[in-house]
Design brief:
Blueprint (H helix, E strand, L loop, with lengths): L1 H39 L1 H24 L3 H29 L1 H20 L4 H29 L5 H5 L1 H20 L4 H10 L5 H7 L7 H6 L3 H11 L3 H18 L6 H9 L3 H19 L2 H6 L1 H8 L4 H25 L5 H25 L4 H32 L6 H53 L8 H9 L11 H10 L1
Helix pairs in contact: 1-5, 2-5, 2-7, 2-8, 3-4, 3-5, 3-20, 4-5, 4-8, 5-19, 5-20, 7-8, 7-17, 7-19, 11-12, 14-19, 14-20, 16-17, 16-19, 17-19, 18-19, 18-20, 21-22
Length: 503
């Protein structure tokens, strides 16, 4: 009996040690993937900070350099337009040198531009720095969600791929706080300090290069299978899952002849798409288009203009109101990351677009009919906060998740770059015309147009966005190949699962 009891104790001890080892591995994997997603998202802090800080800095740049209203629009909007060059180049670059080093290149180019803007003695030099910063942002915008989607476990992909949007919101908030904090300095110094603070995140990017690995999917495309297996062993919780993911990636690479594809052939397929690829492009590019054309960047860049039209007086009061907007935007993006893999992409997009439409309509009506009264000011602030809250809970983060996970391996980088181009062009068109349109039809009229466009985005979500929650990237690819076209968004993903199982 004593012998049997001793054997039982050994078995229990062995089981306890095994469970402890499994738990430790799961914990280590989660920490590692979490750290990779954070470091890959640092470029988004730079983009967000630029958007937030420029909304206040432009007030003082106008006074210091005596620039016209048209020059203000160009200065603000050109970053979005020029970033499309970075996005286009980013797809090719990430296929050539890898996702990891494209992230590093984005940081270097942006920080060079930020330094030039900080020291700019004239509008021409300021624009030069702005152009460099825009190219860096274009690289960062397209590569971060692609990298995170390719390195993340399926169950956490939505959560982790939303990190760039989280960090963008954090950057916007920091930009608003910087505006408020340094607004009391002399006019010829304060805007330079505001822009210069944005250089600091580059220090952390140096550490990131020593932590984050290369994308396993890119490694497979380069026939570096053992390196891909090593990365997958660090980002998946058990060996069977590692081999399963590796087999899926290799199957996708074989189907696409990824090792033989050249950029020209990839672009030929994008420009002459099959029905399934066409639907992927409609879904991925369409959601990015609506993300920006609904006016979120106008709200972020020109929030002081909106609040001034509502009746708030004084630069300090205007900048204080924008801080409230920044806090709201950041708070709700944090809510979104905990819902995206539970509630699902499509449902969050519905909530987001409907809420934005209502908020934009209320903002328009309050600016039209409330004048400079206290009620009008309160409604304007609440409407702007409501708009950014609904954007942050859905259209903001989900856009990047969907557009980074629906394209097949052979097209992912280039197609994501194309979608980012659409996003940047839409953003530039909005920010470079906002002040002129406001003069023509008033601020209230401009936001009424945004509310109509937002209503159209609700229809787009209903028609063209399928649910991709809980599916691997390879299963999503098979979904579209199995007839996942625009049909009310109600696509049966189980069909894709069956097709994958057959193969």
């Amino acid at each position: 009996m004593d012998s049997e009891a001793a054997e039982d104790d050994v078995v229990l001890s062995s089981n306890a040690q095994w469970q402890e080892g499994v738990f430790k591995r799961e914990n280590d994997v989660q920490k590692f993937v979490f750290a990779c997603a954070i470091f890959a998202s640092l470029n988004s802090v730079l983009m967000g900070y630029d958007a937030g800080v420029m909304s206040g800095a432009i007030l003082f740049i106008q006074q210091d350099l005596n620039i016209s209203e048209v020059q203000q629009e160009v200065l603000v909007g050109i970053l979005s337009i020029i970033s499309l060059l970075g996005s286009l180049a980013g797809g090719k670059t990430s296929d050539a040198i890898g996702r990891k080093w494209t992230i590093a290149l984005a940081a270097i180019v942006f920080q060079t531009g930020a330094a030039v803007m900080t020291l700019a003695p004239s509008f021409a030099v300021l624009m030069t720095g702005r152009l460099l910063a825009g190219i860096g942002i274009g690289f960062g915008v397209m590569i971060a969600p692609v990298y995170i989607a390719e390195i993340s476990p399926t169950a956490a992909r939505g959560f982790l791929t939303s990190f760039p949007e989280i960090f963008t919101n954090l950057g916007i908030l920091l930009g608003y706080v910087s505006n408020y904090s340094f607004s009391g300095l002399p006019v010829h110094i304060n805007w330079r300090v505001m822009l210069g603070v944005g250089i600091l995140p580059s220090v952390f990017m140096g550490f990131a290069l020593f932590v984050i690995p290369e994308s396993p999917r890119w490694l497979v495309m380069q026939n570096r299978v053992e390196e891909a297996r090593l990365v997958l062993s660090k980002t998946n919780e058990n060996e069977s899952e590692v081999e399963e993911r590796l087999a899926e990636i290799q199957m996708a690479a074989v189907r696409a002849n990824a090792d033989k594809y050249e950029a020209k052939a990839v672009w030929h397929e994008i420009l002459h798409p099959s029905p399934s690829v066409r639907q992927m492009l409609i879904t991925g590019c369409g959601i990015q288009f609506f993300q920006q054309i609904t006016g979120i960047d106008a709200t972020v860049y020109y929030s002081p203009t909106i609040f001034k039209d509502a009746g708030i007086k004084g630069d300090t009061q205007l900048l204080a109101a924008t801080v409230a907007v920044g806090f709201t935007k950041t708070l709700f993006i944090l809510v979104a990351i905990f819902l995206i893999d539970k509630v699902g992409r499509r449902r969050l997009l519905f909530i987001s677009t409907v809420g934005m439409t209502i908020s934009l309509l209320v903002l328009s009506l309050s600016l039209f009919f409330m004048g400079d009264g206290k009620l009008g000011i309160v409604l304007a602030i609440l409407s702007v906060c409501g708009n950014v809250a609904f954007f942050s809970i859905g259209l903001g983060p989900v856009c990047w998740v969907v557009s980074s996970e629906i394209f097949p391996l052979r097209l992912r980088a280039q197609a994501s770059a194309l979608g980012a181009v659409g996003s940047r062009v839409s953003s530039g068109a909005v920010t470079m015309s906002f002040l002129s349109v406001c003069h023509a039809i008033t601020v209230g009229g401009t936001f009424f147009i945004f509310s109509v466009i937002s209503a159209l985005s609700v229809l787009f979500v209903h028609t063209c966005i399928p649910e991709t929650k809980g599916k691997s990237l390879e299963q999503i690819e098979m979904l579209f190949q199995n007839g996942g076209e625009c049909q009310g968004g109600e696509v049966e993903l189980e069909d894709a699962e069956r097709l994958v199982q057959k193969e």
